């Protein structure tokens, strides 16, 4: 990628050395959140395609509401799938099995509105048809990747703690010990920073769906005294302000109550608002779609900048044109925390062409259901985190 000009940028707001304190908040949602139900069904369909035909082209969108699941999209594959069976199993995995609820694995109806991938798109993406006989980008767009040394996972602290809370709630629900915890939940964590360094957690907000026969005081006590100490770890302290189920009741939840659609939790999926976002969602898209694969690779490269000591924070932006292999631009932002020239030179050695990204990260595998919940980044078993 040495022939691609890599730009650098330094934020002018960092020029001042005056001590600055601010609070930053991020949110997470559980796998039972209506939008995440849709993401998980879409990624389950993608994985099923990848298991049978790694060269599948998949653009899967899902909508869930009340007793209905709508599966839409465009596909090109040698695989033969039973979308209905996959959707029901995904819903069962999440935990919506109560037959008395409108939305349950065995009771939903599944509508399918699908077609073949447009030949205009495949002409630009396929290596044997695209310009220069290389695999082109599956769409135009801009993608970002980010890394910061404020946590061991090189992820923003507020988001990682918010994910830990929703994940801990799900673990308690699945344990069977807390029958009153239901699948739908959200969390929000506020962290106080001084001079860019996290100092303390100030506020925790948790909303969890629950059975009708449980009192709010019991839920609040469980969150404060059992879930939060475990999820927040060393960041837990007695002065945190807790808000639990602020409306007072959250009995009706999930798609039975709210409509879910794929791709509506893109900030929780990425960096919790700590970095910019190009707008493209991930779930249901095969790696020929640079919305997904290039965002993963930008994260990989940003991590390498921090791991190699070139900056303590790094953000990568890449831009593509549909059907073209080489990106239109690559930009590096170190926020004044490192050597900008060295970082730009370092990034220029990475190959951002879609085929190279897919090969380097070994993306033609059924790994995508592992990404759906609690963030696509910061999980050490994923290839872009290694």
Report what the structure shows.
There is one protein chain. With 386 residues, the chain is an alpha/beta fold. It folds into 3 domains: 6-18 and 134-152 and 262-385, GMP Synthetase, Chain A, domain 3 (2-Layer Sandwich); 21-31 and 157-253, GMP Synthetase, Chain A, domain 3; 34-124, 2-Layer Sandwich (GMP Synthetase, Chain A, domain 3), CATH 3.30.300.10. The protein is built from 9 helices and 12 strands. It has helices spanning 34-52, 83-94, 119-125, 157-175, 216-232, 266-269, 290-307, 340-347, 354-361; strands at 6-9, 21-29, 57-65, 68-76, 109-116, 141-148, 181-194, 197-210, 241-244, 260-261, 313-320, 329-333. The strands form 3 sheets. A 4-stranded mixed beta sheet has the order 1-12-11-6. Strand 4 (68-76), helix 2 and strand 5 form a beta-alpha-beta unit. The longest helix is centred in the N-terminal third of the chain and has 19 residues, at 34-52. 48% of the residues are buried. Residues 10-16 have low confidence and may be disordered.
List its salient traits.
GMP Synthetase, Chain A, domain 3, 12 strands, 4-stranded mixed beta sheet, 386 residues, alpha/beta
Strand portion: 15-25%
Question: Under the CATH scheme, which architecture of the largest domain would be assigned?
Answer: 2-Layer Sandwich
Structural class, by secondary structure, is alpha/beta
Radius of gyration: 22 Å
How many separate helices? 9
Number of domains: 3
Query: What is the strand tally?
Result: 12
CATH secondary-structure class of the largest domain: Alpha Beta
Low-confidence runs: 10-16
**In this structure, how is the largest beta sheet organized?**
4 strands, mixed
The name CATH uses for the topology of the largest domain is: GMP Synthetase, Chain A, domain 3
Helix content: 25-40%
Mean pLDDT: 93
**Span between termini:** 21 Å
Question: What does the overall shape look like?
Answer: flat
Biggest sheet: strand arrangement:
1-12-11-6
Order of helices and strands: EEHEEHEHEHEEHEEHHEEHH
